[in-house]
Amino acid sequence: MLTQRLSLNKAPVIRVKPPGPKSMEILSIQDKLESSTRSYTRFFKMAIDYAKGSTIVDVDGNIYIDWFGGVSVMNLGHGNPIVIRAIEDQLNKITHITELPTEARISYLKNLNATLPGKMKDHSKVLFTVSGADACEAAISLARYITKRRTIIAFSGSYHGIAGGVVHATANPHYREYASFNPHEVFFAPFPYPYRFPIKGDDISKVVIDYLDYMISDPYSGISKPAGIMVEPIQGEGGYIVPPDDFLPMLRELADKHSIPLIVDEVQTGVGRTGKIWASDLYGITPDIMCVSKSIGGGIPISSVVYREEYDNLPTAFHLGTYRGNPLGLAAGAAILEYLMKGNLLDRVTKYGRNILSRFQDMMNEYGVIGDVRGKGFMIGVELVKNGTTSPNQEIAQKLRDVLFQNGLLMHTCGHYGNVMRFMAPLTIEDDLIDNGLEIFESSIREMIK
User: Fold this and answer.
1) Hey, what long-range contacts does 41-44 have (CB within 8 A, 24 or more apart)?
2) Which pLDDT band holds residue 171 (cuts at 50, 70, 90)?
3) Rg (CA), the chain
4) How many Å apart are CA 75 and CA 67, to the nearest integer?
5) pTM over 0.90
6) Domain final position from 310, 327, 342
7) Predicted local distance difference test score (pLDDT) of residue 175
8) How far apart (Å, rounded) are the C-alpha atoms in residues 447 and 426?
9) Does the structure show a pLDDT above 50 at 180?
């Protein structure tokens, strides 16, 4: 159970129909001065005043329940005193230094090592990066360096960032249209997406693994021997897609069979989101290379690549950057990992996650516009369809996101067709904010399909 309330006592509270006049004024200034590439201001039309726990207050005084979490970044909630204290203590010491050790850096390294999945603990090295995309890019570079090969296997529905070359391992071709780099060799395999897998049957993991085994083994398959296989344990932007439980263990076996490094992207699944510190532990696998970011810094941009110690024959300056390993982010990360290791929050995430999943499944049985519900811990996807069918319904997802916002609940979409609502609230969200949010979600669905 939570020992103290982090959020505001009452939420949601809508005092002015959003967007309110103060928000509109600020948004207009932003429109005038900032790039049009922004997306979130198109549907969350508000300007933020402050946030506490799992509540956000806009400049017009409206209070929202946050099931958005800065895109699964604020796993311990906004303004968590444990994180704030760590950052404040570090602020009074040093806020930037490149590579040289600090107390925060060593604490982060020790705590990260203590949490690593499977056989990674005490047998890994850490490479500091800045963002999730930077971590994924460095992970691919690492795999290519150690194998002296180029091809990367990724999966349909994957999202590994859109910066630099790693955009070519992100499945949606939209992001690659204006990439500043030429495509590298990336081969996309089907991800075992139970709700939409084109081949029917109970053994879709085997279908995917057998297909990959054939493509890797056959010298005329059309792909070179891969440098790495890159996978999200549960797909994030692809639609919060949970693969069958046997998929990742089978993928691990396949990678071992062909001596291919397995790169596990834990950027969104990590830091407790699934009820384990790392989702790899859900499936009992050990990555060869693991990408870490988002919630590890508590809102401070920071990321890391963890890899097998025997890979550590890298040359000096293999992956450089002035801001890699920022002391503020390292201090936050060390405190967050220690909290997750010592407290009972993950048990709560597992227990409450099952209850929330069950509530959404009850709604699925009641309303024909919900086609599928899946998830682990606080990583839950609700896939919306045209009533009584399996046809994707992006229109209702976008409308629902707007209705929820108007009613004081922040929830975002994802998925192949933009038709999946995703629950990614802070792991510390209070019981009443879960219940209030579920009531708003169901009443909004009911009202929309009248």
Assistant:
1) 43/398, 43/401, 43/402, 43/405, 44/68, 44/405, 44/410
2) confident
3) 22
4) 11
5) yes
6) 342
7) 62
8) 27
9) no
pLDDT in tens, 125-155: 999 999 999 999 999 999 999 999 999 999 9
SS (H, E, C) the chain: CCCCCCCCCCCCECCCCCCCHHHHHHHHHHHHHCCCCCCHHHCCCCCEEEEEECEEEECCCCEEEECCHHHHCCCCCECCHHHHHHHHHHHCCCCCCCCCCCHHHHHHHHHHHHHCCHHHCCCEEEEEECCHHHHHHHHHHHHHHHHCCCCEEEECCCCCCCCHHHHHHCCCHHHHCCCCCCCCCEEEECCCCCCCCCCCCCCHHHHHHHHHHHHHHCCCCCCCCCCEEEECCCECCCCCECCCCCHHHHHHHHHHHCCCCEEEECCCCCCCCCCCCCHHHHCCCCCCEEEECHHHHCCCCCEEEEEEHHHCCCCCCCCCCCCCCCHHHHHHHHHHHHHHHHCCHHHHHHHHHHHHHHHHHHHHHHCCCEEEEEEECCEEEEEEECCCCCCECHHHHHHHHHHHHHCCEECEEECCCCCEEEECCCCCCCHHHHHHHHHHHHHHHHHHCC
Amino acid at 428: T
Residue 375 domain flag: yes
Domain boundary residue, one of 289, 316, 342: 342
Evaluate whether residue 430 is within a structural domain.
yes
Q: Which tokens belong to 200?
A: 């029917």
Q: What is the mean pLDDT of residues 109-121?
A: 98
CA dihedral of 107, 112, 115, 120, whole degrees rounded to 10: -130
Compute, in degrees rounded to 10, the torsion defined by CA atoms 188, 190, 192, 194.
130
Using left for φ > 0, alpha for ψ between -120 and 50, and beta otherwise, residue 191 falls in beta
Q: Give the structural domain span for 187.
A: 82-342
* Judgement on whether residues 390 and 314 belong to the same structural domain of the protein: no
Q: Residue 234 in contact with residue 245, Cβ under 8 Å? A: no
Same domain, yes or no, for 227 and 328?
yes
Q: Which residues contact 394 (CB under 8 A, 6 or more apart)?
A: 417, 418, 419
Q: How far is CA 317 from CA 128, 182, 189, 228, 293, in A?
A: 12, 23, 33, 22, 21
- Closest to 427 measured CA to CA, from 297, 274, 291, 282: 274
What are the tens digits of pLDDT across the range 409-450? 999 999 999 999 999 999 999 999 999 999 999 999 999 987
Going from the C-alpha of 32 to that of each of 29, 35, 37, the distances in angstroms are 5, 8, 13
